[in-house]
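Encode chain A's predicted structure.
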Amino acid sequence: MTSKVVSMPRYPECWKSCGDCARGDVFILEMLVRKGDWLEKDDNVLTLETGKVALDIPTPYAGFVEEVYVEVGQKVDQQQPLIRINDQLPP
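Encoded structure for chain A:
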């Protein structure tokens, strides 16, 4: 059994220099997956709203979604767990 947690990535470096995209809170605008879904590597997990832009967050792994740790409207921080996936077929 191989479970992996997909976490919120680091915010882009440009946010520190310009700051435009990161104005306001960073929160989940839309969840694109739910428990039991199959994801391929680079499939989008959720859409973030930054106050200035909407960003899709992809998964670096393929597998079934075992757990979803966040929900629409929730504020998220860097490295916060988003979902857990498993590359084994469910029972």
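The chain has a mean pLDDT of 85.
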